[in-house]
Amino acid sequence: MGDPPSALPSAPAPGVAALRSSGLSINAPPIQWYPGHIAKAERALRDALAKVDLVIEVRDARIPLATGHPRLQRWIGSRQHLLVLNRVDMIPAPLRAAWTDWFRTRGQALLWCDAKAGTGVKQLQQAAIRSGEALNARRRSRGMRPRPVRALMLGFPNVGKSALINRLVRQKVVESARRAGVTRSLRWVRLGQDLDLLDAPGVLPPRLDDQLAALRLALCDDIGQAAYDAEAVAAAFIALLSALETRPAAGVPAGLLERRYGIPLGVLGSGAAQDAPPDAPPDAEGWLAAAAERHTSGDSLRMATKLLDDFRCSRLGAIALELPPLSPPAPRLPAP
Ligand SMILES: Nc1nc2c(ncn2[C@@H]2O[C@H](COP(=O)(O)OP(=O)(O)OP(=O)(O)O)[C@@H](O)[C@H]2O)c(=O)[nH]1
Ligand SMILES: [Mg+2]
Known about the structure:
By secondary structure, the chain is of the alpha/beta class. It has helices at about 35-50, 70-75, 95-105, 120-140, 160-170, 210-220, 230-245, 255-260, 285-295, 300-310, and strands at about 15-20, 25-30, 55-60, 80-85, 110, 150-155, 185-190, 195-200.
């Protein structure tokens, strides 16, 4: 499965970047976010890594590729690694098997969690403790005393690292809230006799070169809201939803926006979708303006914020913004 083919405008508006990935093309203003606290956290992280045995990498199940950090392998080094796809409740259930297979063919096992409900957290704890057993077997063989395994929770902002720690220890020991950049400093938390967990601020690449990934990060609230224009991001989201309608695995039912907000999504140029050429781009701005008239007294910024909020709180249903990319076709064998 790749991204859907483009049904979106190809000529970007002034000051707007055309985002292309796997055939999908969306217009949105450039998004960059690398606040001081993240730069500082990364420096602290480098020192803390010396004390860590295990890296628990946490990604957002809605965007497992966009929440993969390019420096991760360097941070993991020779340490053990567990990969958690959190927010499993926010994607269509059948997609789990597809991602599990996709990661497995790349040699990577997955743990699925819902840190809000606590699903998968026991399995995560057991996997971390198993890592500790291997560590302590090695220590004993060198005549050293066993100790708790030290695990670092690492991942992009707002993916649910702190929520997972609170679930693991069954009480609110660290702050966890609905915005990027909640955790500001490193903090150790002990779980029983076996596990020391290190909560860390979310990390991001200093430059977001892949702007389609940056858009997905903004949509999932992994980037501070001050870093982008909510109306432009909402318009790009409408275009993305329209493209995802053609991919049932993503969980976007046909006519979702009309069903939820009572406003049909037209296309640019000819108005009614049924009269338009098949590749006509959706009129995202027109939809936002019409929806604003109906729901927010004509205030399109408020309507954009409402739409983004509805997605982020799952009021649009379980929607995946990324699907496992299609593997390249097997090379043809030469004729005998
Ligand atoms: N629906 C759902 N919500 C979740 C899940 N995990 C976390 N959340 C919510 O997502 C929000 C962010 O969670 P945090 O634990 O603060 O995220 P974080 O990764 O620690 O974020 P930073 O500290 O900013 O890096 C909170 O409101 C959580 O309740 C999940 O699996 N499902
Ligand atoms: Mg946190």
